[in-house]
Amino acid sequence: MCKTAGCCQGCLHYAFDYETPKTLVIPNIRVGCVFRFTQLLVVLYVVGYVCVVQKAYQETDSLISTVTTKVKGFAFTNTSDIGPHLWDVAEYVIPPQGDNSFFVLTNMVVTPEQTESRCPELPNPLTTCVDDCDCIEGHSDPRGNGIQTGLCENYSTTVKTCEVLSWCPLEIDTKLPEPALLSAAENFTVLIKNSITYPKFNFQRRNILPHINSSYLKRCEFNRATDPDCPIFRLKHIVSEAGEEFQDMAVKGGILGILIDWSCDLDWWAKKCYPTYSFRRLDNKHPVNNVAPGYNFRFAKFYKKPDGEETRMLIKAYGIRFNVIVFGTAGKFGIVPTIVNLGAALSFLSLVPVVADWFMLTCSRKKDLYSKEKVTYLTEGTESQMPMATSYGTQ
Ligand SMILES: *[C@@H]1O[C@H](CO)[C@@H](O)[C@H](O)[C@H]1NC(C)=O
């Protein structure tokens, strides 16, 4: 009746065909070993690396932290510039409170009794002069000390320099006190209070751990071996753990990092969350490229003399700035990362047959037999070899 009926039957049969792969069993112990060994490698990777080392079953969160510090200690000095002087925390910590850092003054160049007046510049090739013609009135060099008045004055009996309008006498900072003026700062202590939050897990903690009571806190001092949880640090100890000598660093100053690592495993079977401290020097201390070493800045204290004249004491302060750097991530079991990471890791199992096939077809002794059984080459034109053409022709 219909010429296309046979064809339609054929189309239908394509739609409702069930296809199933044929399995070829290779009874070869070496191929079997390669297959199982590769499987074992994948399982070891999943269990050992993904689960144990990477903890890929965990959700993670990074921390929010806040730090306050309190330095304690006294130093007594007796110098020609300022006479006998007792230093307490209000003087050597500048500014009194800072953001995750504190500065401890250790050395200084003091220029007392400066007033706004005129004086000859410090001698260098740009400022030395022979007569007034060498000096330009109103000229100011940013690297100099003031605004030139146009006069050439005697700096000393042998040298003449251009006069400047400035705070005189000028500071001479070529000679630093050595050992450092406040060498006693090595025995100062600092209490570091650090609170952290992992907002995703609603987890809060501080570095004064629950088992620390106030009497312990009054007498303890951080020591990696004996008091690893004590949040009070002796400055000398911090600097020496960073691999530096305090008295060397105190002369020209420097920047030191106090690193607090809060990496936490918040799963109930681990419950591990406490800070670990480490210390390192942050500013450049390259032994060869050591131009402009250390850390310093200037500030002045102003006074009024009884006659109303304003004078100041200029201080070029050298010291150690301690930066408190808090970091860490917390992990806790989560079903989504577990499924995603386990699925990704286990997908490597699908590569195992590829390895085993490769071994079977290239390295085993009966590879010719196996490849003949595994791969069937069709010769074009011999339709009788196509089983579908014969069994589903016209009925
Ligand atoms: C710091 O204290 C130790 C012992 O308490 C003492 O021997 C040392 O001299 C002190 N250092 C300074 C610079 O005062």
Automatic annotation (TrEMBL):
Q: Give the disulfide map.
A: C119-C168, C129-C152, C135-C162, C220-C230, C264-C273
GO (cellular component) term, any one = postsynapse
What topology does the record note for this protein and the membrane? Answer: Multi-pass membrane protein
Instruction: Report which reactions are catalysed by this protein.
Output: Ca(2+)(in) = Ca(2+)(out)
Q: Which InterPro entries match?
A: P2X2_purnocptor (IPR003045), P2X_extracellular_dom_sf (IPR027309), P2X_purnocptor (IPR001429), P2X_receptor (IPR059116), P2X_RECEPTOR_CS (IPR053792)
User: What's one GO BP annotation on this UniProt entry?
Assistant: response to ATP
Tell me the residue numbers annotated for binding ATP. Answer: K70, V71, K72, T189, N296, F297, R298, K316
Family to which the UniProt record says this protein belongs: Belongs to the P2X receptor family.
Q: What does this protein do?
A: ATP-gated nonselective transmembrane cation channel permeable to potassium, sodium and calcium. Activation by extracellular ATP induces a variety of cellular responses, such as excitatory postsynaptic responses in sensory neurons, neuromuscular junctions (NMJ) formation, hearing, perception of taste and peristalsis. In the inner ear, regulates sound transduction and auditory neurotransmission, outer hair cell electromotility, inner ear gap junctions, and K(+) recycling. Mediates synaptic transmission between neurons and from neurons to smooth muscle. Receptor for ATP that acts as a ligand-gated ion channel.
Quote the protein name from its UniProt record. Answer: P2X purinoceptor
**What organism, scientifically named, is this protein from?**
Stegastes partitus (bicolor damselfish)
Q: What is the lineage of its organism?
A: Eukaryota, Metazoa, Chordata, Craniata, Vertebrata
